[in-house]
Design a protein that fits this description.
By secondary structure, the chain is an all-alpha fold. The longest helix is centred in the middle third of the chain and has 36 residues. The relative contact order is 0.09.
């Protein structure tokens, strides 16, 4: 019986650096950095939308709409705190393990035997 599942070198087939010069860790770094940016943009939109809802609810004398706006702002601030905390947790893990998930290589360690300068 022949092997129907053949190993395909995705880096060469799709002409991408992943699998050739970049590793899975680099892909995780890109995903983490991108997700933090997207989360920040979502927080800004929620804050603006909640603020507009509070203003419109107060202008129309609708306390229910105003309360929904306050709730949206509250959840946006909580989300911002969670995103900020996750960023700092990732940075702490980076400093403990020495692996760079979000930040680039430390310039001050350039020239060491384990990290030669380019």
């Amino acid at each position: 019986m022949t092997n129907i599942f053949a190993a395909v070198d995705i880096g060469k087939e799709l002409n991408t650096p992943f699998g050739q010069t970049k590793s899975i860790g680099d892909l995780v770094s890109i995903i983490l950095s991108g997700s933090l940016v997207v989360a920040g943009v979502i927080v800004v939109f929620l804050l603006v939308g909640g603020g507009l809802q509070v203003i419109m609810g107060a202008g129309n004398n609708d306390p229910k709409a105003s309360a929904q706006g306050h709730q949206a702002i509250t959840w946006a601030v909580i989300g911002f705190i969670v995103v900020l905390a996750s960023f700092f947790i990732i940075r702490i893990v980076e400093s403990i393990t020495g692996v760079n998930f979000i930040t680039g290589p430390n310039v001050s360690s350039c020239g060491t035997p384990t990290n030669p300068c380019p």
